[in-house]
Amino acid sequence: xxxxxxLIVAGDPSGDLHASHLIKALKRRDPSVRVSAVGGPLxxxxxxEFLEDLASRGMTxxxxxxxxxxxxxxxxxxxxxxxxxxxxxxxxxxDYYGFNRRVLPLAKAAGVPAFYFVSPQVWASRPGRIKVxxxxxxxxxxxxxxxxxxxxxxxxxAQFVGHPLLDLIPPPFEAKTDAAAPSVGLLPGSxxxxxxxxxxxxxxxxxxxRASRPDLRGLLFAAVNQGDEAYGRLPEGIEFVREQDYARRxxxxxxxxxxxxxxxxxxxxxxxxVVVYKLSWPTYxxxxxxxxxxxxxxxxxxAGRGVVPELIQRDATPERAAAEAARFLDDAPYAASVRAExxxxxxxxxxxxxxxxxxxxxxxxxxxxxxx
Length: 372
Known about the structure:
alpha/beta; six-stranded parallel β-sheet; 44% helix; globular
């Protein structure tokens, strides 16, 4: 007997990661499930049929995707045909509202039920998106506790399944020996545009820090979707790191990182951080007009206050980044207090097993809606 056929659409590296774990969980629950996917290299490795690599194209912000309009139009047309002719049992969108918003009506027109795993950040900007999702999505499987309340109050069925990173992030590092040299992690982002804007700032900030701390070690954590050449020549004292288990990241004294998934990863590890983010000026102007939240770092959003410093646009200078990082390196009580706040954030996100809970709920929803 054939199992359910599913179409999964993820559009960025973090969505590719979460979608791949959902695919694995679905197949653990029901090995007969067949998954067709749009995503990135991780979805390519786990799906039965890989349709297109959307996640590696590095589209972010408001204006940058406009440069890829011909590709997006072609992909949307491909998915329209897929949904109409193949009629999968469900469409599962993973984050990435900008493109998935265009795919959801195609599923509705084809009579294919649609679900969402990892909600787009409707609470950060343009709350009208909730109304759009209400008319197109059967159920949201959300990863932050407050999102379940937000959607239910808007009349959208929602279930909090926990955060998928809890299945990947190891326990926080216990203690560091006094003899160990201090270390700063550099996480400039995963998209090419982020690397272009952030790497000069991060490298210069490290040089400032090391000028008065000759034993300071720098660890540059490379993104899975970027080759070594994307990072240019590393300054003296910086080591290139590729890891999947967070073993080295969890031992950092401080991180300088781009806003995004890395900030939540650092929070779950209890690593104090300085969050830096630069956009193109037109994109920043649009974002400033639309974004309603006070913070960009997820750790600060979940804590409800500015636990870690955020340096955005003009404030994202090497001097400011170095000064904020130096405070963590030089003021042990301050660093310890921030670490404690970050670990409190970790405890708000539930228990491991988010992908399995989402998979179980999805298959139950599909079975409930299947014809007799």
